[in-house]
């Protein structure tokens, strides 16, 4: 006799079968009930292929009046939590498909994870990238072991070419979706956080269009302890998840094309399963400004020596912005899920963050061409103890 908990019933209700678009990979046929047992099975299967990342007490705790624990998923080999879902997805492929290979398009954390783990599993892997992709990202994918093909000037061109090659050669075309396999792999983060931090009050995740991490981890956490608050954070500029929850279906706002700084956070809402799980299990979704994300990047770099991107910093940004006052005095875990910030962007983010944090003052002035004026300016700066 199987005893079904209330949370399992809730998960079952949250995931009716949703017809999927034919443009998705064949794995969309696996969109079924995501159970706690599925997440546990994923954790067992991927334990030797991904890092069990630390969830450490942060020195930022005193500054924000709560016990903050940072789940450092940016320490995965490719710098992203997406490895968990990708590895479980790839290891679940039939052997004949593993021999034929897989193909992905776009410059994203998902593609990087596929490139690395498919190579490690000796699955032929092809990555189609547009000619506008940075050479550093192309080089990295090749070093992971993928065959990288530059095609087209836009992401849409790359995707179209990838689908064509998949059809002609028998490759499986993969793009990030919310199949039960992928969500179960991502949900292992929730299992680990629960195990690593006793007496948790809340866990904060990045949200946005690709909310699979939020949905899958919420399924795990709510099964283990329904009283833990699960909170998603997205950008005010791209409130994709809040719009989708309000509409009751994934939105297709054309303004939400992937923004270079925000990455996956600004993408379109990609799945009904993730959306329904989020609506059922997530307690709150908040939005933060770009300025809050930049200061969050600065705080993590300075206090934790952690170099993260916008997706990685957005969870902490909700605390920086004071969006969650109810968590004061509580024990809170924040998932830092991605650290793939390109060097030129890192330089800009740090410079702007210091200005926003009132630690660097930028100004311009016009001086007359008279002897002694520069000396007077330097004297004024010295009186203000400027450095």
Which key features would you list for this structure?
single chain, 387 residues, alpha/beta, six-stranded mixed beta sheet, four-stranded parallel beta sheet, 16 helices, 45% helix, disordered N terminus, TrpB-like_PALP_sf, L-serine deaminase, L-serine ammonia-lyase activity, pyridoxal phosphate, lyase
Textual characterization of the structure:
This protein has 387 residues and is an alpha/beta fold. 45% of the residues lie in helices and 12% in strands. The protein has a six-stranded mixed beta sheet with strand order 1-2-10-7-8-9, with helices on both faces. The protein has a four-stranded parallel beta sheet with strand order 5-4-3-6, sandwiched between helices. α4 packs across α6. The termini are far apart.
Give the CA-CA distance, first to last residue.
72 Å
Mean model confidence by pLDDT? 88
- Round the Cα radius of gyration to an integer and report it: 22 Å
Strand order of the biggest β-sheet: 1-2-10-7-8-9
Total number of helices: 16
Domain Tryptophan synthase beta chain-like PALP: 49-337
Protein name: L-serine deaminase
GO molecular function: L-serine ammonia-lyase activity; threonine deaminase activity
Pfam families: PALP (PF00291)
């Amino acid at each position: 006799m199987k005893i079904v908990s209330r949370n399992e019933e809730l998960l079952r209700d949250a995931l009716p079968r949703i017809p999927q678009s034919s443009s998705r990979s064949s794995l969309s046929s696996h969109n079924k009930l995501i159970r706690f047992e599925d997440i546990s099975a994923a954790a067992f299967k991927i334990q030797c292929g991904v890092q069990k990342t630390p969830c450490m007490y942060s020195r930022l705790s005193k500054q924000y009046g709560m016990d903050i624990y940072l789940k450092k998923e940016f320490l995965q080999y490719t710098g992203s939590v997406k490895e968990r879902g990708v590895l479980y997805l790839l290891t679940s492929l039939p052997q004949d498909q593993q021999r034929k290979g897989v193909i992905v398009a776009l410059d994203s954390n998902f593609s990087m994870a596929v490139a690395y783990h498919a190579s490690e599993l000796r699955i032929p892997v092809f990555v189609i990238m547009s000619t506008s992709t940075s050479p550093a990202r192309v080089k990295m994918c090749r070093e992971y072991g993928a065959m990288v093909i530059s095609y087209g000037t836009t992401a849409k061109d790359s995707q179209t070419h990838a689908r064509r090659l998949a059809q002609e050669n028998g490759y499986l075309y993969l793009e990030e979706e919310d199949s039960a396999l992928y969500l179960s792999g991502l949900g292992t983060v929730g299992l680990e956080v629960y195990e690593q931090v006793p007496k948790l009050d809340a866990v904060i995740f990045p949200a946005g269009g690709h909310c699979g991490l939020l949905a899958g981890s919420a399924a795990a956490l709510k099964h283990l302890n329904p009283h833990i608050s699960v909170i998603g954070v997205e950008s005010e500029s791209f409130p994709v998840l809040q719009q989708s929850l309000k509409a009751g279906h994934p939105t297709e706002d054309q303004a939400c094309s992937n923004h270079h700084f925000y990455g996956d956070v600004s993408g379109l809402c990609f799945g009904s399963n993730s959306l329904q799980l989020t609506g059922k299990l997530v307690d709150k979704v908040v939005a933060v400004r770009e300025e809050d994300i930049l200061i969050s990047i600065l705080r993590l770099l300075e206090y934790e020596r952690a170099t993260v991107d916008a997706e990685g910093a957005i969870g902490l940004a909700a605390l920086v912005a004071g969006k969650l006052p109810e968590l004061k005095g509580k024990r809170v875990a924040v998932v830092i899920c991605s650290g793939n910030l390109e060097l030129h962007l890192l330089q800009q983010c740090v410079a702007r963050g210091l200005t926003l944090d009132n630690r660097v003052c930028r100004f311009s002035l016009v001086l007359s061409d008279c002897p002694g004026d520069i000396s007077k300016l330097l004297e004024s700066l010295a009186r203000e103890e400027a450095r």
